[in-house]
Amino acid sequence: MKICYAASEMAPFIKTGGLGDVLGALPEAMQKQGNDIKVFLPHYKTIDIGDNKIIPVEINSEIKINDQNYPLKINKIRFKKSNMGVYLVGSDHYFDREGIYLNPNTGKDYADNDERYIFFARAVLAILKEINFKPDIIHVHDWQAALVPVFLKTSLEKDPFYSGIKSILTIHNLAYQGEFTLERFKLLELPDKLMAPAIGPFEFYGKVNFLKAGITYADYISTVSNKYAEEIQTKEFGCGLEGVLKERNENIYGILNGVDYKVWSPSRDHKIHTTYHIANLSGKRTNKIELLNELKLPIRDAAPLIGIISRLEEQKGWNLIKEAADELLSMNVQLIVVGTGQPEYHKLLEDLEKKYPDKCKAILKFNDQMAHKVEAASDIFLMPSIFEPCGLNQMYSLRYGTIPIVRQVGGLADTVTDYDSNHNNGTGFVFIEKDSKSMLAAIKRAVDLFARKRTWTKFMKVGMKKDFSWSRTAKEYSKLYKNLLNS
Ligand code: ADP
Question: Which pLDDT score is estimated for 81?
Fold first, then answer.
């Protein structure tokens, strides 16, 4: 198959979240399966190309936006190992600036983000024609690339070069939709009927919505877990797009993201104090003692260490934790949090550290090494998300023998099963309701079981054997692509 990917992030070059990780893994996995792959990424100023070779590509195209012509500057990164080409879509005007989506001077979105990603989508399509690479499938990600399937079926519909190209739009987080004010619609140079109230694909409560249009025009839509694929078609999780998504119900698929076990395995993790293995878990205790010492918390073998690594945002369940904090810390537990985000939760954690100095520590930064240490040292990982498209830390936790406590939503519901004391199966503790009582009940169940050491160790091992590797994810995408081509 000839497959083209277009997205606004790709690890290790530029990444703010799970989207970057997927682009860092999926195209290469598909290339390994023998497919012909090209990836398109905006050429941000802050991109880190490491020691990869960068080759300028001669392209004589200009992209017209708002009656101005902007020259395209294309460079290509060629991977040494796989020979896969990544095209960096450059523009002095749109991408040669600090930050990715936000202006670091104001902390706000760049006011021309709509123009920047219109430019990107048009450029991707123009380059494909110029290099004469007609893909079978264009797989685009999130609102920043959602205009590609729109242009394919509107402004470029009559151009034979593009006819027959199929498209897939993957939604990594429905909360981000690319919404702009009504008067910006003209930048798209598309017929007014596409913005007609209630029936226009772009129209969303008087605003222009790029993701909504992408959902309407993409041949297939996918999300990063099965459960989230169902949830986004409901009012609770649909962020206002549930109606549009429901209409596309037959073409919505969920494929769980994979874990990079080269980076996240306790047996080969060089960021932790001592590596350990399912056959010998003594190293896990060493990691716990070392981390407690490093953070100047007392060592209490009978107290389970609860770890949290997360953005400090409402999405991640911080309101529940805030409500439950005193009751939680009155139990015989210790708590270590690694996270940054809303000031309200920074304050909460600073207060808790002061109030419970022997029980609670917060590292209020983005600190990758500390994230690894917390996964290895903790007995329990707490992830009470309000919604969770996929989530990675619960999968890392399973591999590290760190029992996850999760809310039954999205990818958390698809990856963690509740402990069943009658049959001794399950991989974690799962609660359903969006309230602190239910969360605390799950934590209490975990704390009680922790006291039964032999059962706990068996329980850890069940989770450690679970496999959420990328090869499985890549196979599912491959199946989806074939299914689309045969449809
Ligand atoms: P989301 O993309 O919604 O933030 P995910 O669970 O999909 O959540 O991915 C989050 C990733 O970011 C995980 O790899 C997690 O370990 C990491 N992470 C989040 N916050 C921090 C932090 N403060 N320091 C280090 N790593 C973090």
Answer: 67
Q: Are residues 28 and 162 in the same domain?
A: yes
Is the same domain home to 188 and 209? Answer: yes
Number of domains composing the chain = 2
Give me the domain span that covers residue 249: 2-258+470-485
What tens digit of pLDDT does each residue of 176-209 get?
Answer: 999 999 999 999 999 999 999 989 999 999 999 9
pLDDT per residue over 131-151, tens digit each? 999 999 999 999 999 999 999
**What pLDDT is attached to residue 61?**
86
What's the 267 CA to ligand 1 centre distance in angstroms?
A: 21
Which ligand 1 atom sits closest to the C-alpha of 257? 7
Instruction: Yes or no: say if 214 and 140 are a contact pair by the CB < 8 Å rule.
Output: yes
Q: Name the residue of 337, 366, 394 whose CB sits within 8 Å of the most ligand 1 atoms, as the mutation to test its pocket.
A: 366
Q: Are 388 and 256 in contact (CB under 8 A)?
A: no
Alpha-carbon distance of 430 to 432, in angstroms, equals: 7
Is the pTM for the entire model greater than 0.90?
yes
Rounded distance between C-alpha atoms, residue 376 and residue 374, angstroms: 5
Both 189 and 236 in one domain: the answer is yes
